[in-house]
Amino acid sequence: MSHANTRNKFLAIFEGIREELVAHMKSEKMPEDAIAWFNENLIYNVPGGKLNRGVSVVDTVTILLNRPPTDDEYFKAALLGWCIELLQAFFLVSDDIMDGSISRRGQPCWYRVSNVKGLGKVHNIAVNDSCMLECAIYHILKNHLRRESYYVDLLELFQEVTYKTEMGQLVDQITAPEDNIDIGKYTLPKHAFIVRYKTAYYSFYLSVALAMRMCGVPDVYELNGKTVEPYKEANRILIPMGEFFQVQDDYLDYHGTEAQIGKIGTDIIDGKCSWCVCTALTHGTDIQKQFLFENYGKKGPEQAMREQAVKDVYNDDEGLNIPKRYEEYSKNTVAEINAMIELVPESDAQDELRGDRLRRDVFRAFLSKITDRTA
């Protein structure tokens, strides 16, 4: 199936979910304007991204089963995928408010929308809207999967991963508070901690863990005389992979265009604890570091000039050369992750068709989606 067909099939499931959520609002006797607002919240914030996190649940289920899923299996996997997309929407809507971001996915951030179908501007209502997106996850899970043996596992996964993500967001916010930027706090280990918690768990581990639970992969099993703990194996590989993904994001924020990445990069102006500035501070000379202290995260009339000046320092072939450092980092990280994948215990040929055992192809498929990405 082509990428477009895969996406369209997945999107068709969202339409059913949206209709179901709107119908529930009506059953609660909500006013018509509130129902219309929630509907626009869903349409504007949930289906507009690349959908990699959600589609990856379906892809992982297919790999684990080693066959195309039945219609029922596809629906359940896609449902879980859309729950991740709802979680992603919840994070992004709230994150954009905290960061004062301008655009997201090629359109104004939700909180900046001036008129929602004639119902008024969003502004601070976006705080409540983000919470409603999160709550919709548990309504959907209860409606469709409460009788499944793995239902409680799903609830725990969503709750634990959400908690970890918010922990990462907390560290990110207090490390780089908008009104008191101090890049002296920025280090590569601090950056790694933030991105593992803020991004890696929900963007990588969650998709695979949900698929594993749906396919009945147990917490522990015996394979070739050895004890395998598949969820620990998944964590061991997917969290570093998620860190790699966020480093790519950090690099693209400074080096990519709005047309490429679907937003205006603001990490330099916002003074974010980005891989780029952490790398610059780690490897720069005293003069380069002082220049960054004077220009990084400085808002005001000269912010555009200061931002470009920082980019020029990053781009200097004879100096920091962040593009070259990123290229080396990327090459080495992909090799390290591939080496970790090869260490995953895998079933013998006779057990190949069992869907309740972990497979290396799960991780290979994930890695192939992010290697050399430009958006």
Structural key phrases:
375 residues; mainly alpha; two-stranded antiparallel ribbon; 15 helices; globular
Any overview of this molecule?
The chain is mainly alpha-helical and 375 residues long. It has 15 helices and four strands. A hairpin with a 2-residue loop joins strand 1 (103-104) and strand 2. The longest helix has 29 residues, at 71-99.
Short recap of the structure:
The chain is mainly α and 375 residues long. Helices cover 67% and strands 3% of the residues. The protein has 15 helices and 4 strands.
| Protein structure class | mainly alpha
Number of helices: 15
How far apart the termini lie comes to 22 Å
What is the CA-based Rg, rounded? 22 Å
Strand residue percentage: under 5%
Give the spatial strand order of the biggest sheet: 1-2
The topology string of helices and strands comes to HHHHEEHHHEEHHHHHHHH
Which term fits the overall shape?
Answer: globular
Arithmetic mean of pLDDT: 93
How many strand units?
4
**Poorly predicted ranges:** none
Proportion in helices: 55-70%
